Amino acid sequence: MSEHDNDNTFRWYVIHTYSGYENKVKKDIENMVANRSLQSKIGIVDVPVEKVVEVKENGQRKEVERKKFPGYVLLKMIMDDETWYVIRNTRGVTSFVGPASKPVPLSEDEVESMGLEKGEIIDTNIKVGDTVQLTEGGFKDSIGTVSEVNVQKRTIKVLIQVFGRETPMELDFGQVQLLD
Known about the structure:
16% of the residues lie in helices and 37% in strands. The protein has helices at residues 22-35, 81-88, 108-113; strands at 11-17, 42-46, 49-55, 61-67, 72-77, 93-96, 131-134, 143-150, 155-162, 165-172, 176-178. A hairpin with a 5-residue loop joins strand 3 and strand 4.
């Protein structure tokens, strides 16, 4: 029997990274998941950020994004020997949070208090091929075609025209409106 529980349940785990490498580690893990077709085992790779207002010396206020947990990346995944190995051997990852040989998943209370899951399931009737309008962001009011739907991550990929080129954008369900 392996040292990792193979119960096929998605749970939140925390990995420690070298400071400043959080986004690089996130990108590397996402690339590895795609290259090794591990989407069924590693669902969400997250570096939570929050918007804070910084006050400069001249009194000017500026809203900036700051990492909520510097030095950490959060993963919603199924822990087994394969996923443990892939994550553990990602450049920039120092360890899983928990005893050395046994990563410990976050409790439901920890997940909720960290704001990782709000508990509500967003039921979307948006599907590949639908036409949607962006409701926020720099391309607000642009119209595009849905090319991918990821219910687990609550995101969709939309192809919109930017400077005459079809450009893919990954958006949250709440950032688009379905057009008839």
